[in-house]
Automatic annotation (TrEMBL):
This is Diacylglycerol kinase. One of its GO terms (cellular component) is plasma membrane. Coiled coil: none annotated. Its cofactor is Mg(2+). Substrate binds at R12, R25, A26, A27, W28, A33, F34, R35, Q36, E37, R58, E72, S101. The chain crosses the membrane at residues 59-78, 99-119. A divalent metal cation binds at E31, E79. CDD domains: DAGK_IM. Its EC number is 2.7.1.107. PANTHER family: DIACYLGLYCEROL KINASE (PTHR34299:SF1). ATP binds at R12, Y19, E31, E79, K97, D98. It comes from Spongiibacter nanhainus. The keyword Methyltransferase does not apply. It catalyses: a 1,2-diacyl-sn-glycerol + ATP = a 1,2-diacyl-sn-glycero-3-phosphate + ADP + H(+).
Length: 124
């Protein structure tokens, strides 16, 4: 298998970082769900350091928050790719979007369970 032509080494990392920033900016500008989850993450991440009493508790609070944001980004990318292909309704397009949405829901449930269990242990 041949490597793709283009940048390599440190310059590839620099350009990849730029593409990532461009993607985050696009998600912020065009995806309300991403904005809501990013704001929630901005609140929950500092709270995790206060709520978690051990390093393991903190990581158990932090990882699901990042996972929600990551899954939302992937879901938004799936939706954009589907819409780029065609705006026509098609069962497979709908199925792909629904599955992406289900992945976001599952990540949100994981986050809620993780936070709920640690809050319960700490306060009840």
């Amino acid at each position: 298998m041949m490597n793709k032509p283009g940048r390599s080494g440190f310059m590839r990392i620099i350009h990849a970082t730029g593409y990532s920033q461009k993607g985050l900016r696009a998600a912020w500008q065009h995806e309300e769900a991403f904005r809501q989850e990013a704001i929630l993450a901005a609140i929950l991440l500092p709270t995790a350091f206060w709520l978690g009493q051990t390093a393991l508790e903190r990581i158990a609070l932090i990882i699901p928050v990042f996972l929600v944001v990551i899954v939302e980004l992937v879901n938004s990318a799936i939706e954009a790719a589907i819409d780029r292909i065609s705006m026509d309704r098609h069962p497979l397009s709908g199925q792909a979007k629904d599955i992406g949405s289900a992945a976001v829901l599952m990540s949100l449930l994981l986050c809620a369970v993780s936070w709920g269990l640690i809050i319960q242990q700490r306060f009840f």
